[in-house]
Amino acid sequence: MRRLLCATVLLVLLGAPAGGAEKVRLMLDWTPNVDHAPLYWAQARGAFAREGLEVEILTPSDTADPLKLAAAGRTDLALGYMPQALVAASGGIPVRVCARLVARPLSTVVALEDKGIRSVKDLSGKRIGTTVPGMMDVLGKVFARHHGLKDLEWVHVGFQIVPPLASGKVAAVVGAFRNVEVVQLRRQGLKPRVFPLEEGGVPDYDELVVLASPALSKRPRVLAAFRRALAEGLEATRRHPEQAMSAYLQSVPGADQAEEREMLDATLPFFAKDQKLDPARWRRFADFALREKLVEKPVDPAPLLLRF
């Protein structure tokens, strides 16, 4: 019995981080939103703590910051986008991907049936808005070419997506989120029409991935622990979305709870069901990115995807 007890204690000590919980800084891709609900739910239900991690969730001042800060070692982990990661890697930034949160594109092309857009062909001859320069304008033109759309006028609308659509300033916006602006438009009594980019010549991709700093990339035990806790948070969010919503709402006091719940419901089908980082899938998008001049140099995705 004494030997068994000693062996058990030894195993616990060997499995526990030195000095207690391992502190990990995780920077979001933007301000807290429903995409992050599984992270907040994992934290609230003790998933990170059970894995020996003390995770601090940080908010960036700009969407371009998290990836660069992770690559520079100024945060341990950061959320980023698969296309953004490939562009950064092409530019020589040391990108390392360890997990995924949202496994399909949320960015899409959104129009309004109220403005006479019922099929994708109705967009020919119209003014089309785009959000992120150098990304959504390129994807939008691929989408237009795929569907044979002609005589389009392209304008940059930034992230003020709902007003130009509702007012008729633009007929559609490339880069609107199917789990955010589509919900907002419906709540205004409008009838949004969604045309997925991945059905318009753009390869399917992981919308939201987790990037690791160079130092943390060399610590597979910590990365594996984080990924297990994230997987628990994702599965718990699918099974108990109302509890995940309660945990998430603590980060956005004053938010419209009914609207946020609709957004979470719209996001649930897109959360990652596993943590497989598929090199072939990344390769398809990397080849597409080179062909469409999203990147200047070829990118081999395999070294970017951490295996542990």
Automatic annotation (TrEMBL):
Residues 1-20 form the signal peptide. Residues 33-244 form the SsuA/THI5-like domain. Transmembrane segments: none annotated. InterPro entries: NMT1/THI5, SsuA/THI5. Gene3D superfamilies: Periplasmic binding protein-like II. The keyword Signal applies. GO terms for biological process: thiamine biosynthetic process. Pfam families: NMT1 (PF09084). Coiled coil: none annotated. Keywords: Signal. The keyword Lyase does not apply. SUPFAM superfamilies: Periplasmic binding protein-like II. This is NMT1/THI5 like domain protein. It comes from Aminomonas paucivorans DSM 12260.
